[in-house]
Specification:
By secondary structure, this protein is mainly α. It is built from eight helices and no strands. It has helices spanning about 1-20, 30-50, 55-60, 65-80, 85-105, 110-135, 140-165, 165-195. It is globular, with a radius of gyration of 17 Å. The two termini are about 20 Å apart.
Length: about 210
């Protein structure tokens, strides 16, 4: 069930990324955030109630609430045109917590691929904090590109590997590939994001973002 949720986390990250890039209207992203936020509430609740007291299952499921609350927060902000500062500081909380989950995946769960994926999410949510909590609108284009790419790399790809049973065979190589990809691609995006934008509709400001 968690794998299905991860697939749609990829979808909402892609939608929110292209929203930040200005490719779609901000309010049009609200429904997907409501849908996935709701799904990511139901998924960990189900996993926790069926865990039979397994501490590792409960611990892993608890991290899913970080995403559900983010997406629902985004959906409400977009729907009611609210200031994004509160969401930004929640994203700081998520970014710090994601570092803890990354360490747990490397050590307790012995899952290096998701250890790297949680580092991806810590980086992305830190960008959301800077964009929203610190009002650094200049990083909106970069954040949008990182978010859209992560939708595929941290959601769509691992979800299909899990759903098809291939994940266990590629865990360690996937971790290395993701680490290299993240460093190379997200570094290469910096000069691209700094280039002047060609005339087009402006990307959403910090108050209309993200996650």
């Amino acid at each position: 069930m968690a794998s299905v949720g991860l697939l749609f986390v990829g979808a909402v990250l892609f939608i929110n990324g292209v929203m930040l890039l200005g490719w779609i209207d901000a309010r049009s992203a609200a429904p997907m955030n409501f849908f996935v936020g709701g799904l990511q509430i139901l998924t960990p609740v189900y996993l926790i109630f069926t865990a039979n007291g397994d501490a590792d299952v409960i611990l892993a499921a608890s991290g899913l609430f970080l995403f559900s609350f983010t997406y629902l927060y985004v959906a409400v902000n977009l729907t009611f045109d609210l200031d994004g500062t509160g969401l930004g500081y929640f994203c700081l909380f998520v970014a710090i917590t994601a570092l803890v989950f990354s360490a747990l995946n490397f050590t307790r769960f012995h899952d290096p691929a998701f250890g790297v994926i949680w580092l991806y999410w810590a980086f992305l949510w830190a960008l959301f904090f800077l964009l929203l909590g610190q009002k650094r609108d200049g990083i909106g284009r970069y954040t949008g590109a990182v978010c859209a790419i992560q939708g595929w790399v941290t959601g769509w790809i691992p979800a299909f590997l899990l759903l098809t049973g291939a994940y266990d065979r590629v865990g360690a190589p996937l971790a290395i590939a993701l680490a290299i990809f993240g460093v190379v691609v997200f570094t290469a995006l910096i000069p691209w994001a700094r280039r002047p934008r060609s005339p087009a509709a402006p990307a959403p400001t910090g108050d209309h973002a993200v996650a």
